[in-house]
User: Which sequence fits this backbone?
């Protein structure tokens, strides 16, 4: 009895054996299939799945980049970064956000408005994005939060940096200010878009805006491993960010502050420029405001106060304010007439207070008239009658040529300020093209005293003065210090070399045309803007007379000390046409409504013996240039000249110092 | 005669001990070790609840299996039907008074263990069929009566499990049963016919499926249809396996797993975790380990003299193969996601218990391989 023994038993065994054999073969095939799939996933597509796995587990957090500083010429920080205490929450890491935020509200004693803002902000961002509950905790609040921290899980007190402007309103228009990046900022600047993190501040106006890409810096990056619920498990990697480029400006804070003090409560602008290097020592527009207000979002009250101020603090008058230059244009008119040989310095006009021309009466500012005046006297006493007659002979197109050459009607900077305006120096062609009308001769007369169509910015007047004061050479106005900047000595020798070339040149009239044609600004830098330097010298001498001789329009603001002695030209530009009746009244300035008062202007350069600096002072509705603007220039000159030594000493010590 | 000594049941305990299949036991131990380490890894390298209870269960059930191996094969044969009916009763009990968890009612509370009778049914059905065909003459296998009875025996528990609802387990029970039917000589044409009928009735079957089951099938065909919802599991599983590469990310370093991207990592997706950490090499080795276990089990069946033992071993080996195949295919994206554990590797007491009971019978067949059951 070896086995079941029966035939069926054997058959059964053989059937099951056979079928098991078939099944085993099938199993081998199936296991082969599984191995093939493993091979395909793990070997063939390994890279793809590895990437997907990393995408799952790694998440990057960009840290806000640290913005570069602004420094003045002496390396003082004029826009920097301040340490601030902030409160951050990552909503998805908090169990009960609502109760937490109410607790925080109580501890920080936040008002309902701020609280609502936070709630709104939370809704607008992703749950894993950092919610900045407070951007600027006071020390007391910071201490309090830390005290209660154990019951506020998910809340993070953070030490961060924020933009600060230590000189408050002094540099507002120059530097601009920063505020939270808007959708517009993100759309217009790819650099901002790339580096954006919640709460990033970007420049809104001024240099902060135009130099954004240099200032912004590089984000730090924190790479975390996160789990399926987005919770950070551990930090994989930390890449330090890079602070943005620090930018050193040519400005002198002392002078800038003096400008601010001088203009206090008035609307106006003061600019000071080195007449050789083109360095802008100060450029202030008043009234100003504190840019620090914008950092955390300006409050409604503050914003309304700035916006509704009748003196319009938001306008940067220095480069965007367009005003008729008034008599400050006269040196250019005189130069143009001399250069074009319209008159000789001996040409005389009898001023009786007014002149009848083409059936219209043109008045001199002095009702009684100046009597018989020559060119020098006309500049000194600012005789309008003389300039009417001279402009009539000169013609507006020749005046236009000279004025443009010396910097009027063109932007002073090359795209540093987006908002800068180019102003307007009229010509017959311009009127035909733009207004579609023919030029009327009477318009030439009023253009000759800086009224009518002509409009300039205060900074243009400063550049004009500088390019006259340096003997009539083209300079490069600039506000940012560069390593490649030429020194004063280098520029001076370049100028004299260019002058020599010009004198020896075969035909300098053609050479002038050549200069006009060349498109590049660099090409004719430091080259003469005149045909005969004697003409420039004549005009400068007349300006000296205007300030330093009896009967000169700014005689009362003269400084006799040779060290500070300066030359200048007053300007009083009308805002509206004065009727004959008003003229008879001869109202005192206080009796005229503010908006109707004249603008007061003054351009000056000094020290007269060896000029280095030019300035323009502009007071909106300030009355007459001689009584309002010139005294400010006097005060400012003292400071500018005193600072000159400091500046030279600093240059000696820090050759090639660039922030 | 040598055979007579064997048959007279006078073999000593020592002889029995020697006749155990040590290769199979060794493989099972290795598998237990691997599964415990994997469980340890699912808990991020800490011995927590799952690891502890898995290790304890393995030790307890493995020891139980060793002891039960010495039970005479005749006894297993004699309780074949009883075992089936007891499990069937438990199934009915579960559907009426069972413990509910995550939307289905699969468990019976036995105070010391929450038993899942559907898992036991996977073994019980094989044992029941093995006994049934042991007695049936080969020429009567394709008799009408002998076809209808196994069909009923198979369909009743399947319907009970489907209604729990537990599609995965019912499919596995069905496949286990069918494979025994096939092995025992049921005419191949019936399998072909019924497959055809199944194919035709497929639209009807789909229409009675639960919405989540339908979703799973749709998702299988296109996992990217809803990557954060229904497709999530399979996408994450494939990412885990694929990112493992040739040699894996290393023990305890499976990022998909410890960062919780992997769903159900203790149970159905334990192979994904293993594959992520040990790569292609590890996965193939694990598959090879299962292949050895299946081969050794089948080999015991081949040398068994009794038809009961032979059929059970063949059937059990084939169902281990089916469990492994279904589970791995599922996590590798070759089959739709249905709940199906990987034998011994997956966390779950009932599954382990059922598997170990199966191996007890296999071992018993080995020890009593010369025995003839009348």
Assistant:
């Amino acid at each position: 009895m070896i086995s079941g023994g029966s035939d069926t038993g054997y058959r059964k065994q053989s059937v099951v054996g056979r079928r098991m054999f078939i099944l085993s073969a099938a199993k081998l095939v199936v296991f082969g299939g599984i191995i093939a799939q493993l091979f395909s996933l793990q070997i063939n597509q390994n890279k793809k799945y590895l990437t997907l796995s990393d995408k799952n587990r790694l998440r990057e957090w960009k840290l806000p980049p640290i913005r570069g500083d602004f420094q003045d010429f002496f390396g003082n920080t004029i826009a920097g970064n301040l340490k601030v205490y902030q409160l951050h929450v990552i909503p998805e890491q908090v169990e009960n956000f609502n109760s937490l935020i109410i607790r925080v509200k109580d501890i920080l004693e936040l008002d309902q408005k701020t609280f609502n803002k936070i709630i709104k902000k939370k809704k607008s961002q992703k749950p894993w994005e950092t919610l900045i509950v407070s951007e600027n905790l006071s020390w007391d609040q910071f201490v309090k939060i830390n005290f209660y921290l154990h019951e506020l899980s998910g809340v993070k007190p953070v030490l961060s940096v924020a933009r600060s402007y230590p000189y408050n309103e002094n540099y507002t228009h120059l530097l601009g200010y920063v505020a939270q990046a808007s959708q517009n900022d993100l759309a217009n600047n790819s650099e901002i878009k790339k580096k954006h993190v919640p709460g990033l501040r970007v420049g809104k106006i001024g240099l902060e805006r135009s130099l954004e890409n240099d200032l912004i810096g590089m984000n730090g990056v924190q790479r975390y491993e996160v789990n399926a619920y987005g919770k950070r498990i551990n930090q994989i990697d930390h890449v330090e960010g890079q602070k943005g480029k620090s930018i050193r400006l040519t400005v002198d804070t002392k002078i800038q502050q003096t400008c601010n003090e001088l203009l206090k409560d008035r609307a106006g602008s003061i600019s000071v420029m080195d007449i050789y290097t083109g360095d802008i020592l100060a450029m202030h527009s008043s009234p100003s405001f504190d840019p620090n207000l914008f950092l955390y979002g300006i409050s409604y009250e503050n914003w309304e106060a700035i916006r509704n101020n009748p003196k319009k603090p938001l306008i940067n008058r220095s480069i965007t304010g367009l005003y008729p230059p008034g008599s400050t244009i006269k040196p250019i008119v005189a130069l143009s007439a001399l250069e074009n040989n319209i008159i000789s310095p001996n040409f005389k006009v009898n001023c009786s207070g007014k002149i009848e021309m083409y059936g219209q009466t043109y008045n001199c500012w002095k009702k009684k008239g100046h009597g018989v005046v020559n060119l020098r006297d006309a500049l000194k006493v600012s005789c309008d009658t003389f300039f009417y007659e001279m402009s009539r002979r000169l013609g507006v197109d020749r005046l236009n040529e000279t004025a443009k050459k010396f910097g009027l009607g063109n932007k002073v900077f090359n795209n540093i300020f987006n908002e800068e305006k180019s102003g307007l120096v009229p010509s017959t062609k311009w009127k035909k093209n733009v207004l579609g009308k023919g030029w009327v001769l009477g318009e030439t007369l009023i253009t000759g005293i800086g009224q009518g169509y002509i409009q300039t910015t205060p900074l243009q007047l400063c550049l004009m003065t500088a390019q006259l004061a340096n003997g009539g050479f083209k300079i490069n106005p600039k506000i940012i210090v560069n390593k490649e900047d030429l020194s004063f000595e280098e520029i001076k020798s370049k100028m004299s070399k260019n002058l020599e070339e010009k004198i020896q040149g075969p035909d300098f009239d053609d050479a002038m045309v050549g200069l006009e044609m060349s498109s590049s600004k660099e090409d004719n830098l430091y080259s003469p803007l005149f045909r005969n330097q004697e003409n420039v010298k004549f005009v400068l001498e007349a300006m000296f007379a205007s300030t330093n001789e009896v009967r000169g329009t700014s005689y009362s603001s003269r400084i006799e000390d040779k060290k500070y002695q300066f030359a200048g030209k007053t300007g009083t530009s009308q805002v509206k046409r004065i009727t004959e009746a008003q003229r008879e009244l001869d109202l005192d300035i206080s009796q005229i409504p503010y908006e109707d008062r004249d603008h007061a202007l003054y351009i000056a350069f000094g020290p007269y013996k060896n000029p280095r600096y030019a300035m323009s002072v502009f007071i909106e509705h300030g009355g007459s240039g001689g009584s309002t603007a010139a005294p400010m220039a006097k005060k400012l000159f003292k400071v500018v000249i005193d600072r000159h030594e400091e500046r030279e000493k600093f240059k000696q010590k820090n050759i090639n110092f660039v922030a | 005669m040598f055979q007579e000594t064997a048959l007279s049941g006078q073999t000593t305990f020592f002889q029995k001990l020697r006749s155990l299949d040590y290769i199979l036991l060794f493989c099972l131990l290795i598998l237990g070790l691997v599964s415990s380490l994997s469980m340890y890894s699912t808990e991020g390298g800490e011995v927590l609840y799952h690891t502890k209870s898995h290790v304890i269960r393995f030790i307890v059930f493995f020891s139980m299996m060793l002891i039960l191996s010495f039970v005479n094969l005749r006894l297993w044969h004699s309780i074949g039907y009883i075992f089936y009916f007891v499990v069937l009763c438990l199934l009915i009990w579960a559907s009426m008074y069972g413990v509910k968890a995550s939307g289905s009612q699969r468990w019976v509370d036995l105070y010391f263990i929450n038993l899942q009778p559907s898992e036991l049914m996977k073994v019980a059905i094989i044992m029941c069929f093995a006994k049934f065909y042991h007695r049936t003459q080969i020429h009567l296998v394709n008799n009408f009566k002998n076809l209808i009875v196994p069909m009923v025996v198979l369909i009743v528990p399947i319907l009970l499990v489907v209604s729990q609802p537990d599609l995965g387990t019912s499919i596995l029970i069905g496949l286990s049963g069918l494979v025994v039917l096939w092995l025992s000589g049921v005419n191949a044409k019936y399998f072909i016919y019924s497959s055809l009928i199944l194919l035709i009735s497929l639209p009807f079957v789909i229409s009675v499926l639960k919405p989540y089951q339908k979703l799973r099938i749709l998702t299988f065909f296109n996992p990217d249809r809803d990557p954060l919802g229904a497709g999530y599991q399979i996408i994450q599983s494939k990412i885990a396996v694929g990112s493992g590469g040739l040699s894996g990310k290393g023990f305890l370093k499976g990022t998909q797993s410890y960062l919780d991207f992997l769903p159900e990592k203790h149970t159905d997706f334990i192979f994904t975790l293993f594959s992520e950490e040990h790569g292609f090499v590890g996965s193939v080795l694990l598959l090879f380990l299962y292949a050895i276990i299946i081969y050794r089990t089948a080999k015991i069946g081949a040398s068994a003299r009794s038809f009961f033992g032979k059929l059970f071993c063949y059937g059990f080996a084939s169902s281990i193969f089916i469990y492994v195949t279904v589970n791995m295919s599922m996590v590798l994206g070759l089959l739709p996601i249905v709940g199906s554990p990987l034998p011994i590797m997956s966390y779950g007491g009932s599954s382990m218990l059922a598997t170990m009971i199966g191996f007890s019978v296999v071992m018993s067949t080995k020890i009593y391989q010369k025995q003839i059951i009348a």
Chain B touches chain A through 49 residues (CB under 8 Å). Residues 270-303 of chain B form the longest helix (34 residues). The two ends of chain B are 20 Å apart (CA to CA).
